[in-house]
Design brief:
By secondary structure, the protein is mainly β. The protein has three domains: 101 residues, Metal Binding Protein, Guanine Nucleotide Exchange Factor, Chain A, CATH 2.170.150; 71 residues, no CATH class; 138 residues. Helices cover 14% and strands 40% of the residues. The strands form four sheets. A seven-stranded antiparallel β-sheet has the order 13-14-16-17-18-19-15. Helix 4 crosses helix 6.
Length: 339
């Protein structure tokens, strides 16, 4: 296998990058993966906690760890696996006697232009896409026009990745109890939002009720189709018990942030024979009430058709896009979400 030509660190062109759940380990490669494969062996199943492992191979000469180093475990007489020592994310698989190639778990890859060049029209790619603080497993089919279009979309069945370079985060209170997460392409300023939760709150109720086990992630997904202010908020237990911030899920809840105002998804327990909750939103700041109303409209739209699935389209940066649809900019491509 041919190796990439040696280049200085400053001139290295990053084609593929990825990392672990907590962000302690990040990697990059200057050569696009030579291919991808599923493995159903018991070792891969146990390593990734799934029915199969999905890997892409890159030349070792093009690969480097940009942040941190993984721990390694020799899983068989012929291979060893790399994982993050802090969060346990599986990252690599290396043959002991075949050092020219390193396999990286596709689940931790960012979207890059390499995917477009490697596929033929009609080819299918299944990849976890993360945007606006939530992750969906999307099956994409390449069209004759070089554009990837989804044919299935499902919530990923694992904890959302954090620590990715494209996602930003900052505390919005003085005690670092509440954090906001947004993408690099969004016009969100944590400095403007600092202390916003100390301002009076406005609660707005939607017309939607849910059961105790009903997923709220489809509300989040639908909101990303049309609203540029969609982001994620998390609150430490102390923030919840004090009443500073009471999101519906303290570790990751849909929010809207715009200028010096914010609103986040909330729920109120109803006095009914069976457990049920009224969905709503809590807003802070000068435009907090209008943001809360806007968030409730997203909830109501989802409530009108809870099984609707979006069409997701991934464009190379140079490709024309459908007029009238909101474009979500990623590091290496652009995407639209349409219902």
């Amino acid at each position: 296998m041919a190796r990439a030509k040696s280049k200085s660190a400053k001139s290295r062109k990053k084609n593929v990058s990825g990392g672990c759940l907590c962000g302690a380990v990040r990697y990059e490669a200057t050569v696009a993966p030579a291919g991808a494969a599923y493995c159903h062996c018991r070792m891969c199943q146990r390593s990734v906690g799934n029915v199969f492992g999905t890997f892409a191979g890159v030349p070792t000469g093009s690969f480097r760890f940009a942040r941190g180093r993984p721990k390694r475990y020799q899983s068989s007489p012929v291979a060893r696996r790399g994982f993050c020592a802090r969060c346990g994310s599986p990252l690599t698989c290396e043959g002991l006697d075949h050092a020219e190639t390193i396999m990286v778990t596709i689940g931790s890859l960012d979207i890059t232009p390499a995917w477009f060049g490697q596929m033929r029209p009609g080819g299918r790619l299944v990849v976890p896409l993360r945007w606006r603080g939530q992750t969906q497993s999307v099956a994409l089919v390449l069209g004759e026009d070089g554009i990837l279009r989804s044919d299935t979309v499902f919530l990923c069945g694992f904890v959302p990745m954090t620590g990715q370079d494209w996602e930003r985060s900052a505390a919005i209170d003085s005690h670092d109890l509440v954090r906001l997460y947004w993408d690099a392409d969004q016009d969100i300023s944590p400095a403007q939002l600092s202390g916003v939760l100390d301002r009076p709150k406005t609660r707005i109720d939607s017309g939607v009720t849910v059961g105790p086990t009903e997923s709220l992630d489809p509300i989040w997904l639908r909101a990303t189709a049309t609203d540029p202010a969609v982001c994620r908020i998390s609150a430490e237990p102390a923030a919840v018990t004090s009443g500073l911030c009471t999101p519906v899920v303290k570790s990751r809840t849909l929010a809207l942030a715009e200028g010096d105002s914010i609103a986040y998804l909330a729920a109120q327990r109803l006095q009914t024979p069976e457990p049920s909750f009224r969905m709503g939103a809590i807003g802070h700041g000068p435009d907090g009430a209008s943001l809360a109303m806007r968030l409730c409209r997203h909830v109501d739209a989802w409530g009108a058709d809870r099984t609707a699935k979006p069409a997701i389209t991934i464009y190379p940066r140079s490709a024309p896009r459908t007029a009238g649809t909101r474009v979500i900019t990623r590091e290496h491509c652009e995407m639209t979400v349409v219902y």
